[in-house]
Amino acid sequence: MEWVWPFTREPSLVLPSQWMGWLGWGLLWVIWGWGLRQVASGALQVARQRWYLLLGLALLAPLTTLLIGIQIGGEELLPLPYLPGESPLPLLLPLAAIPWVLASGWLGPFWAAWIALESGLLVGIWITHDVFTPLLISGLGLLYGFAVTQAYQGRFWAWLRFPLVAGLVVGVVYTPILILGAFFAAPGGLATRLDFAFSQSWLISLVRYGELVLAGGMATILAVVPGTGWRRPSILMPAPWETSLANRLLFVTLPLVVLLFLVMTVSHWMVAGNAAREMLQERLSGAAQVAAEGLPYFLESGQSLVTRLADPALLEQPPETIRERLAQQLRAVPYFHQLMLFDTAGRLVAAHPDLDLSISPLSAQETQGISLALKGVPIQVYTILPAGEKRSMQVSFLAGVRDAGGVKGVLVGRTDFDTNPFTQPALAALHSIVSEGGDGFILDENGVVLYQANPTTGALLGESFGSVILGGEPRFYEGLSPLGTRQFMYYQPVVGKPWSVVLVMPAQRAQDMALQIAAPTLISLVLFAGLLIILSRVGSRTLVTSLSLLASQAARIAHGQLDTPVQVEGVDEVGRLGRAFEQMRLSLKARLEELNKLLRVSQAVAANLDVEAAIAPALEVTLGEHVVAARVALIPEVKLDFTSGQGVALGQGSLAEPFAYLDEVLFEGVRQQNLLTIANVGRARRLQEVIQGRPYPSALVALPLRYENTYYGVFWVGYDQPRVFADEELRFLETLAGNIAMAAANARLYATAEVGRKRLEAVLASVPDPVLVFDNQNALLLLNPAALQVRGLFGQVTPGSALEEVITAPGLLELLSLPPGTRFQSREIALAEGRIYHASVATVWGEEYPIGKVCVLQDITHYKQLDALKSEFVATVSHDLRSPLTLIRGYATMLQMIGDLNEQQQGYLQKMVSGIENMTRLVNNLLDLGRIEAGIELKLENLDPAEVVSQVIAQLQPQAAQKSIEIQSEFHLPEGLVLRADPDLLKQALLNLVDNAIKYTRLHGGVWVSATCENERVVFAVRDNGIGIAPLDLPRLFEKFYRSGRREAHEQRGTGLGLAIVKSIVERHHGRVWVESQLGKGSVFYIELPLDPEKAESLV
C-alpha cells in the first residue's frame, strides 16, 4: 500500500475503437438520461434554495478526486486489450465519493449524479483513461442518491436511507453494471470482452465499493445529527412493487434470477477458463518438450561433423582443390550450407559457396572464434545474424585443423534452423503452435532470439526476448504482448545446452476455447433465465388475473353489488378462495336483504308515532316463503284513547284474520318467557283445546315485546307447514320484535307526552301572567294567551320563530339572550303605556345539558306606583324629622353645659344621643335613597376603577384595623381603562359593601376587593370570609329595611337601607348588583357597571 498523488499522472482519455464499444457507450447514456429524468422533479427548486451547497460541492469534487490516492498492492490491473500500456496497480481514492455522497443527502439524486459525473470525468482522464468511467461513476451516484432519499415504507427502506447502509447495498447492486461497462469498454471479440469484464471488474468494483463505504460512513454522522440539512422524507409511500402482486413477484424473482445467472455465468466461465488454460498448458508443454529435445542432437551433430571435416590434408592442396573438396562434403552431408577454411594467419583459403569477405565479412564472434581455435580451442559454436531476411539466426561451428605439429588452420561451418535437417522436428513443433495463433522462439543463453516461428507477430530475431526469466525448471506463466493483450507463455530449457524454447499463445485462444466450452451452458443459462422470468410472469399473471377478479368482486361486494356471482374455477387455493368469496357474497346478500328489511322497519318506527303505521312494515317484511300470518297484539296504553281498555291487534298475511283468535293465548303465553317455538302446532298439547275445531298454522314462533323491562305484547308468525327454525331466522325475528317493541314504546311515550302537553296547555291558558317557552336554540315553542295581550312586547309570535324575531323589548331580549346558568335570571322590564313587568327566566335542564328556558312576566306596575308613593311619604316624613332631631341633639349636647351630671344621668344622655344619631342616620339614608330613586342627575366623570377602590379601602382601613382584618385589593384591568360614573355615588356604594364586609367578618378575618373588565363592563367584587348569608335571605337581601332573622346579623346595628342604596346607585348607572354566599364561609358582592352609562341608557 502506497500513498500517491493522482494529479501528477499523465491525463488521457481513450475512446471506443469498435462499433460495439460505441453502442454500449450510447446505451449507458440512454440509461443514465432515463434515470436522471426520473429524479428531476424539484431539482431546479432545490438548486435555487441551496445554490451555495451545489457550488461548493462542485468546486470540492476536483480536490477530493485528484488530491490523494492509495496504491493497493497485489494483483495488477490489465490495460485495455490492443492498447499498449503498463499494468497499473489498483488505486483507491478515499475522498473521491464524498462530494456526490453529500450531494445525495443535501441536494437529491439529480445533482448527486451531476457531481458524480464531474468526479468520474476526472477519474477517467487521470486514473483509468476510460471513457466509460464518468458514466459508471455518475450512475453509481444516481443510484446512491435515490437510495438515501427514497420515501418507501418498510424497515428495509428505512435502513437504506442511512448513508452507510446505502453504500453497502448500492455497492453490491451496482457490480453487474460495472461488469457490463467493462464488457463494452474492452476492444476485441466476444471472448476477449468477456474475459476482460470477468477478470478485471472485481478489482474496480472493490475500489469503488471502498470509496462509497468510506464516504457513506462520514455522511452517516451528518444524517443522524439534527439541523445539518440532510433531507428526510416527511411522507412515506408504498414501493411500486408493493401495489401489485405481479410486480412483487417480479421484484423477488428478477434479482434472484439475475444473481443466479451472474453467479452461474461467472463460475462457469471461470471453470471453462481454467479448463482451457490447462488444455493450453498441456499443448504448449508438449510442443516445447519436442522442440527442446531436438536441439541437443542438432548441436552435437554439427560439432561432430565439423570436427570430422577439419582434415589437415586440405591445407596441403591448392585452393581450387580445397574448394572442390568442400563442395563434395556439402553435397554428401547437407548439414551446413557454407564451409570456410582459414590458415594460421586467419586468412580465408577457400570457401564453398564462394565468399567475398570484403562484401560479407565475418561476424565478430566468428573472428574471435578463429583466434581462439588457432590458440588450441578444439570446437566452438556461435550464433550470428542471417544474411538477408530470414526468420532464423545462423549457427556457426568452428573447429581447428590439426596435425602432429599443431593447429594448421580453422574450418568454419555455417547452418540455420530453417535448412538444417536435424532441426525440422523441433521447428515442426514450433510451427504447430503458430498454426493455432501462437508463436515459438528458440533462445540462447543470453535470451537472444535465435529462431521465431511466426515473424509476423514482430521482428525479434537477434534481439533479447525480455519478458522471460532464463534458467530453472520448465514453467507456465502469463504476460502481456506488445499490443497490450494477455498471452500465455511456456518456458522449456534445452538439456545439455544453455538454450531454451519459449512458446507463446495469446490469451484469446484460451478465451475462445473457454467460450466454446461455456457457450452451450451460457446459452442455456440465458434461455433458462429468460424462460424463468417469462414463466414467472405468465404464472403470476394467471394468479394475478384470478386475484384481480376476486379483488374486483370484493370491491363490488364492498359497494353493495351482490348480484354478480364469483366465477373462479379450480381446486387450488385460488379456487377455494373464490368459492369462499361466493359463499360470502351469498351470505352478505342475504344479510343485506335482511338489513334492508330492518332498515325499512327502523325508518318506519322512527318516522311514525302512530303504532299501526310504525308496525305495518315489520309485518310486511316478515311475510315470505311458507309464512301465512304475521300478527302483533299490544297493550292498550300504546294509543291515545286507552280508556276503553282494549289492546291493539294487527296482522298481515293470507290467514292473518282466521288465526287472530291465537293473539290472546300467545299474549299471555310469552309474558314470562323470551321465545316460544312450536315446530308442529298439531302436536302441541298446550294448544289442543284452543285450536279444536278452528284453523291453525302448522308451525309458529312467538316473541315477547319488551322494552326497558316493560311488557308491551306479543309478535308471532305462523307457517303453512311444520319446520325447524334456524338460528339466523330466529335472530332476524328477534330483531324485528325489538323494533316493534321500540315502536310500541314510542307510541306509548307519545300518547303520554301528548296528554301531558294538552294538560300543560290548559294550565298555561289559565295562568294570568304571560308565559313564554323557548328551546335551547332560542326558538319560540309556545306562549299562553295572556302573553298575547301585552302591548309592545312581541313582533312575530309564530312558533319556531327566532328569539330576535319574537321579542321587541330590548331589556327582555337581553335577559333571554343570556347563556344558561347566568347569575341574573330576573329583571324589571318597562313596556309601552308605562307598564312595568318583573321578568324571570328559568332554564330547563335535561340530564346534563339545558334543553330550553321558560320566561314568566309579572305585572308590577301597581306595586311600583305604591312603592313610589311610599318613597315619597318616607322622604317627606324624613325631611320633616330632620329639624326636630337636630334640635333634640343640640339640646341634649347642651345639658352638660348647664351643670355636672351624675353617672346615671350621663348614661341616659349618651343613650339619647346614640338614639338620635341612629335616627339621623336613618333619615339621611332615607333622603339619599329618595333622591336616587327620584332620578337625580348623575355627575359623570372619567374615573380610574383601581383608584376608586384604593380610596375606599384607605377610608375604611382604621375600622378594619380595630378588628385585625386585612383588606387586600386585586385588579385585572387594561392599561388606560376609563370608567364614566358619579364618583360620590360609586364610592358610597363601595363603602356600603366594604363596611358590611368588615362588620360581618370575625376578628382576624380578611376582605378582598377586586376590579376586572369583561365585555365593556367593569365588575367590582367585595369578598369576605365572614358569617355568610342564608339561602332564604338571598332573594330579599336588597329590599328596603330587610334584615336577616339570624342572631349573628342582629348583633350588628343597621337600618336595612345600605344594600337598597347600593342597588339604587348601581341601577341608576344601568348596572347590576348580585351576591353569592355560603353560610359560614363568607359572601361575595358584585357590582357590574357599563364603561359608559350614557351609551348603555341609549341602548335601553
Automatic annotation (TrEMBL):
- Where is the HAMP domain positioned along the sequence? 541-593
Regions that span the bilayer:
20-39, 51-72, 92-114, 121-144, 164-185, 206-229, 249-271, 513-535
Where in the numbering of this chain does the PAS domain appear? Answer: 756-793
Which UniProt keywords are listed?
ATP-binding, Kinase, Membrane, Nucleotide-binding, Phosphoprotein, Transferase, Transmembrane, Transmembrane helix, Two-component regulatory system
Query: What does the record give under GO molecular function?
Result: ATP binding; phosphorelay response regulator activity; phosphorelay sensor kinase activity; protein kinase activator activity
For this protein, the record's InterPro entries field holds: BphY/WalK/GraS-like, GAF, GAF-like_dom_sf, HAMP_dom, HATPase_C_sf, HATPase_dom, His_kinase_dom, HisK_dim/P_dom
The record lists the organism as: Thermanaerothrix daxensis
Every Histidine kinase domain range: 876-1093
| Gene3D superfamilies from the UniProt entry | 1.10.287.130, 3.30.450.40, 6.10.340.10, Histidine kinase-like ATPase, C-terminal domain, PAS domain
Which EC class does it fall in?
transferase
Biological process (GO) annotations? Answer: osmosensory signaling via phosphorelay pathway
Q: What is its main location?
A: membrane
Q: Where does it localize?
A: Membrane
The name this protein goes by in its record: histidine kinase
- This entry's Enzyme Commission designation comes to 2.7.13.3
Which GO cellular component term is one of those annotated?
A: membrane
The record's catalysed reaction(s) read: ATP + protein L-histidine = ADP + protein N-phospho-L-histidine
Task: Name the SMART domains on file.
Answer: GAF, HAMP, HATPase_c, HisKA
